[in-house]
């Protein structure tokens, strides 16, 4: 397994996050020059690896059968980050250039609550 720095804005652009949190693609486009940033980790049978949210990674299996299980745990911070990305997407559609959501441990509550309020209003008006 190779793990890359979480939230690296060169690898994971704001637009990728916005598309991802709006139901878009989950896989990052790969650029070979990023390979040197990765930290290779050898995982043996029975071991577990913690990959923080927003942590790009890839897994290479060898000739033997390999089974993996991925469990996603979301913190309150991660929900606010996702909502802030969705809110930024709205702002871009209006022709604005919003600042990037803050990475952990910084807070994104203002954008998050704004997104939640707009989405709720849209649902109530039958648009969501």
Q: Which segments are poorly predicted (pLDDT under 50) over 5 or more consecutive residues?
A: none
Count all strands and give the number. Answer: 3
Percent helix range: 25-40%
Strand order, largest beta sheet: 2-1-3
Number of helices: 3
Strand and helix order: EHEEHH
Largest sheet, strands/sense/barrel:
3 strands, antiparallel
Number of domains: 1
What separation lies between the terminal Cα atoms? Answer: 39 Å
Mean pLDDT reading: 90
Strand content: under 5%
Secondary-structure class:
mainly alpha
Taken from the alpha-carbon principal axes, the silhouette is elongated
**Alpha carbon gyration radius:** 17 Å
Overall description:
The chain has one domain. The chain is 33% helix and 5% strand. The protein has three helices and three strands, in the order βαββαα. α1 crosses α2 (76-93) and α2 packs across α3.
């Amino acid at each position: 397994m190779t793990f890359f720095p979480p939230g690296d804005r060169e690898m994971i652009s704001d637009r990728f996050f916005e598309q991802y949190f709006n139901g878009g693609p989950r896989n990052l486009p790969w650029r070979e020059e990023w390979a040197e940033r990765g930290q290779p980790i050898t995982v043996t049978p029975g071991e577990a690896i913690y990959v923080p949210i927003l942590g790009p990674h890839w897994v290479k299996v060898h000739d033997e059968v390999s089974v993996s299980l991925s469990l996603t745990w979301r913190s309150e911070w991660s929900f606010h980050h996702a909502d802030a990305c969705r809110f930024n997407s709205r702002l871009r559609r209006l022709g604005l250039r919003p600042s990037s959501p803050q990475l952990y441990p910084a807070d994104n509550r203002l954008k998050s609550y704004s997104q939640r309020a707009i989405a709720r209003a849209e649902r109530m008006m039958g648009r969501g």
